[in-house]
Amino acid sequence: MNTKxxxxxxxxxxxxxxxxxxxxxxxxxxxxxxxxxxxxxSITLRCDMVSTKHRDQIYYWYKDNINLRRNQQxxxxxxxxxxxxxxxxxQTAGTLISESARLFISNEYVILQKPPVVYEGDTxxxxxxxxPGYQSKETTFYKYSKLWGSVGxxxxxxxxxxxxxxxxxxxxxxxxxxxxxxxxxxVTELFSTPELNMxxxxxxxxxxxxxxxxxxxxxxxxxxxxxxxxxxxxxxxNFSAFNKYHILSTQLADSGVxxxxxxxxxxxxxxxxxxxxxxxxxxxxxxALLIARVVLFPLLLVGSVxxxxxxLKLFSACWTSQPQQDSPSQAANTDxxxxxxxxxxxxxx
Length: 349
Hints:
Elements: H1 3-20, E1 27-31, E2 36-38, E3 43-48, E4 59-63, E5 66-67, E6 74-77, E7 86-92, E8 101-106, E9 110-113, E10 118-119, E11 123-130, E12 136-143, E13 146-149, E14 154-158, E15 162-172, E16 175-185, E17 187-188, E18 195-198, E19 203-204, E20 209-214, E21 225-231, E22 234-240, E23 244-247, E24 256-264, E25 270-272, E26 276-278, E27 280-281, H2 284-321, H3 328-345
Parallel strand pairs: 2-8, 10-17, 19-27
Antiparallel strand pairs: 1-3, 3-6, 4-5, 4-7, 7-8, 9-11, 11-14, 12-13, 12-15, 15-16, 18-20, 20-23, 21-22, 21-24, 24-25, 24-26
Pfam family, one: Ig_2
Domain Ig-like: 26-106, 194-277
Keywords: Disulfide bond, Membrane, Signal, Transmembrane, Transmembrane helix
């Protein structure tokens, strides 16, 4: 099999394992997606599975840890009463029991409806709802007592943790009365901060290297994520479903500071790992050459100096042992002086 294709298949398997995990846990969802309703209203609870292989399963429903003896995927409450409020969970054969989903039943004139769970990156939907059959007007939304505007009975905005309030006038007992409702939103982390690791560090030159970008928690299991890898601030692998970065034969240039980044498909949530510094070690021959240079060069240098000193001493000894002779210039000067003296001493005729 082609090495590149083989690696892609392995990466796809690893990515699927990252999302699914070894333990499957269903999720309870509400339709409509509000955690608070009035008495007399209807709502459907659904046990959702991430994997399609769990179809045609027998489902088990629990309310406040009591088995409801319902075996369908959906549980419908046609006309809610106060007794229907509580914590609901579901399970199928071979799966873990779901996290609990809290349902509230109200008799108030006004309620502020919100989703059971709000994840980071989601669009927040709120509804200022008045009791069915009662006329209402002038709906206003607040956050931490700050006016957010009056845009009808629903609000749409970014998911931000905080306390939200709505107000409206409701007609009862022949008059319009002012009513308020409050809800606290806690934005749930969609996935944990990624961790970047590798099998060994440092790593030798010309060897394989694999970086893994993993997360300890993926809260919403059906969330699709993308991964990218950076070295010294430069992208070395674009965003994709692969949570691994692989180098078949490392080079010294592959040394540096690595970071992996994770984002949702719509880029609404982005997170980065801690930096991981990786040092690629040179081959053994390079180390041996370096040792040879460090050890042998001084020895050669000392040997050269000693040899030069020996030759210098030998040359000096040979020079001092030879008899001194007049140079040709000195002999010429002597002959000239003698000729001059002879001329002066010879008598003239």
